[in-house]
Design goal:
The complex is a heterodimer of chains A (199) and B (390). Chain A is of the alpha+beta class. Helices cover 25% and strands 33% of the residues of chain A. Chain A contains 4 helices and 11 strands; from the N terminus they run H-H-E-E-E-E-E-E-H-E-E-E-E-H-E. Residues 1-22 of chain A have low confidence and may be disordered. Helices cover 60% and strands 3% of the residues of chain B. The N and C termini of chain B lie far apart (73 Å). The chains are: A alpha+beta (199), B mainly alpha (390).
Chain lengths: 199, 390
């Protein structure tokens, strides 16, 4: 009996995505149309057409790509509050992610992202470069660059922009393979950053 | 009871020295030759891996410890690779590829302890355990046998230390062994140590430390105390408590006074310790990291160890942690006033506890010591805003 029920459930689970397709599908972000991202008041105006990936990496995060997440991904973090991690915790019991705190300084945001990546994505090698102040969302922010070797053994480059607004963290990151893809997508990512405002 | 007696008797006899080495094994038959080719391809990828630590001095040192443990003739059979991976692990593939993870180097404290783990892995290799497992799986014709082979290819999981989906650990894909084979390898590992110049009692210490680390990790996360006297369902290794007890019994009692090479080990690891510690701290495992730092500082904490502890507490960031972190960084500065990371950590901790003027002073010192720091511009701005109040 249990066996039959499990099988039925499994069948239903397999079939479910077919019906839920419209909700689970990847999105399309059209050039020139302002759009709010990461379920927040963070608004960007795409400088070109972008794909929005289905499946949010966190409660307050959203991912975009041009050529697929393996080749480039832009992640928006919208208003991470003290006590919250940047991404969804895949294993809260054994691998909890580091949390933003009330005391976290803007200068410590790179360390927070690094620890999040290392814990969440099992990255062994991560190097931070060039953290400097830069305006973001019309306020004092930070821009930083980093490099890491992802769990697929491929060296990647990253760039991030972040600002703390009323104690909440707003951030955007670009992650792409170091070879070719990062430099190709970086101008489009930076144009998104330039257009970002808080509504 | 009569069944148990021979086991106990065996466990109280020191492990015998290994038999004469028979030399490198050559694969036989299509299956083995095919497997060898796959492992050779794995090794080719490994040799080009960006997480490989290529430093000649460290590689020569770890190889030296392996050779001192298993002997010069056996040592030639191993090609050693050190990976920057914060896991307590090492493995050896049947084609002679030995992988040593940086997390292992961080956790052992002497040549004897390192030799115990490397000797254990070499024991698997010499006994051709992987091949035996492979052949056993191949002998089966049904789907379940193949399932077991495929399961063997899953990443090597070791409880709390598991970093899943990690390609680098899949390289040792055939390095899962049965519990009996683990005991056999333990016996061999201690056998090598008994015959070496190192102290064989160290092997038991490794497992005791692993247990304590797991306890601290669980405690800091408010989890139940881990049980070490039980063999979890499907576990590939004997229970840790059993291992620690067996290894203590297998060591030659008269070898207990031998040098364990702790001083030489500490000297060789010193240049790498800050990096390995940083990799560990950023795994966000407070209890385990705190324990490791304490263990490394057992005979006196050094400035890098105080910095590591400061980073750990500052990252967790409870208000009381920030006060402790500032104190730890100050301890580091007392030992070495020219350590930029200590000044940076102190400055940031003081800033976060509201002592902005003092914090700015430490950050200024950081910028003086490391003007080309990657975050110099950002820290410079923090210093500039210190006078402006909250």
């Amino acid at each position: 009996m249990t066996r039959t029920r499990t099988a039925t459930l499994a069948l239903f689970a397999a079939a479910a995505p077919l019906f839920a397709m419209p909700a689970a599908a990847h999105g399309y972000r059209e050039q020139g149309k302002p759009v709010a991202v990461a379920a927040s008041t963070l608004v960007v105006i795409p400088n070109r057409d972008w794909n929005q990936l289905a499946g949010k990496p966190g409660k307050k995060a959203e991912r975009w790509t041009l050529d697929g997440e393996q080749l480039d991904q832009v992640t928006f973090y919208g208003g991470i509050a003290p006590g919250e991690p940047l991404l969804r915790e895949r294993d809260r019991k054994h691998r909890p992610l580091p949390k933003l705190t009330r005391e976290t300084l803007l200068a410590e945001v790179p360390e927070l992202l690094e620890a999040t990546y290392r814990t969440d994505r099992a990255i062994a090698s991560f190097t931070l470069h060039d953290a400097r102040p830069e305006r973001f969302l019309g306020t004092d922010g930070i821009r930083f660059a980093y490099e890491y070797v992802d769990d697929d053994n491929l060296p990647r480059r990253g760039e991030a922009h972040a600002a703390l607004v009323k104690g909440q963290l707003y951030m955007a990151t670009l992650d792409a393979p170091r070879l070719h893809y990062f430099d190709r997508v970086a101008p489009s990512y930076r144009a998104l950053i330039d257009s970002a405002t808080l509504r | 009871m009569p069944v148990l007696a021979p086991v106990l008797a065996a466990a109280t006899t020191p492990a015998p020295p290994p038999p004469p080495y028979t030399g490198a094994y050559q694969p036989q038959g299509v299956d083995e030759i095919g497997l060898w080719k796959e492992m050779d391809e794995d090794e080719r990828v490994l040799a080009n891996s960006p997480v490989l630590i290529r430093d000649e001095a460290l590689n020569a040192y770890v190889r030296g410890v392996l050779c001192a443990t298993v002997g010069a003739d056996r040592c030639k059979a191993a090609r050693l690779y050190i990976l920057r991976t914060p896991l307590f692990n090492a493995n050896m593939a049947p084609n002679g590829t030995m992988r040593v993870f940086s997390g292992l180097l961080l956790r052992v404290r002497s040549e004897a302890e390192l030799g115990a783990v490397l000797g254990h892995e070499f024991g698997h290799f010499e006994q051709r355990h992987s091949l035996a497992a492979f052949k056993a799986h191949r002998a089966g014709t049904d789907v379940l046998s193949w399932g077991a082979v495929l399961a063997g290819m899953l990443p090597y999981a070791q409880g709390a230390y598991s970093l899943r989906n990690m390609q680098i650990s899949i390289y040792g894909r055939l390095s899962r062994f049965s519990r009996d084979q683990e005991r056999d390898a333990d016996l061999h590992g201690i056998g090598y140590l008994n015959g070496s110049a190192l102290r064989p009692q160290a092997a038991s210490v490794v497992w005791q430390n692993v247990m304590t680390e797991a306890e601290r990790s669980a405690a800091a996360r408010g989890q139940a105390h881990p049980r070490f006297d039980r063999i979890p369902f499907f576990a590939s290794h004997p229970a840790d408590a059993e291992r620690a007890a067996t290894m203590a019994a297998l060591a030659r009692p008269d070898a207990a006074t031998r040098d364990d090479g702790a001083a030489r080990y500490a000297a060789a690891l010193a240049p790498w310790l800050p990096l390995f510690l940083d990799d560990q701290i950023k795994l966000n495992d407070f209890g385990a990291s705190d324990y490791l730092i304490g263990m490394l500082g057992e005979h006196g904490a050094t400035a890098p160890l105080w910095v590591a502890r400061g980073d750990l507490y500052r990252a967790r960031g409870y208000p009381r942690d920030l006060v402790s972190a500032a104190e730890f960084y100050a301890n580091a500065i007392a030992l070495d006033p020219n350590l930029p990371e200590a000044q940076r950590g102190l400055g940031l901790s003081l800033f976060k506890t509201g002592r902005r003027a003092e914090g700015a002073e430490a950050l200024r010192r950081y910028l003086q010591l490391k003007p080309a720091a990657p975050d110099a511009a950002m820290i410079g701005m923090l210093v500039a805003t210190a006078g402006q109040g909250q």
